[in-house]
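agent> Task received from the user: take the single chain below, predict its 3D structure, and emit structure tokens. No templates, no multimer pairing.
agent> Plan: (1) validate residues, (2) run structure prediction, (3) serialize to tokens, (4) report one or two observations.
agent> Step 1 OK, no nonstandard residues flagged.
tool_call: predict_structure(input=
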Amino acid sequence: MGLLDRLSARRHDVPAPQVVTTIAGKADEPLFATKAFHKLLATLTSRDSPALLDVGPVVGSNVAFFGERLGCKIFVEDVYADLERHLRAKTVADFPAFLAKRFPQRDHTVDGVICWDLFDYLDKGSAQALADQLTRVLRPEGALLSFFSNTTPRDANAHAHYTKYVVADDAHLKYRPYPATRAPQSVLANRDIIRLFAGLRVSDSFLMKNNVREMLFRKPSYETR
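)
tool_result: status=success, residues=225
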């Protein structure tokens, strides 16, 4: 059985997203199960003074979660906002070149990366430019977490929003939509995702009942040789 077959067959028995009322927060705010997030946390907690790169918008409670619980040094680089500016300015063709110079972090200096669902909104060139940069800054044996949609929306206009992912606990996230100029792009096949992160290896892949694939990548130690 090849790698792609193993990924397709992996962990399809994840419970459907559900509202969990036992966790602090608004009663009407849904919380969704996540299987890969705690594995990223395990990588971070195994390091002394870990550094985390978050490519989403600033979420105060997330900063507190990573800072207070893990003692992380956190770099928040809101690439969603960067994409939105380029879309509104009609300069999205320049976005890959922008991403190639976007991150000030040096090579091999970050222990963990959280991409959320950003790759769903990127064209092929931008996706590759971003993946190259995130691979560059990740330390050997570091972990990268990303979410990928497994289905194409029937009505693209109805899904023209980004999502803020708010950490509730080790196993649950809150999803908070906010306005976007671009709807999610075409669904990435497993083989295309693996090609994007050619310098990393797939550690875990979970296909959730809400048709989101959570994928955790790790950087091999031989990268520094």
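agent> Step 4: summary for the user.
The chain has one domain: 3-224.
agent> Done.
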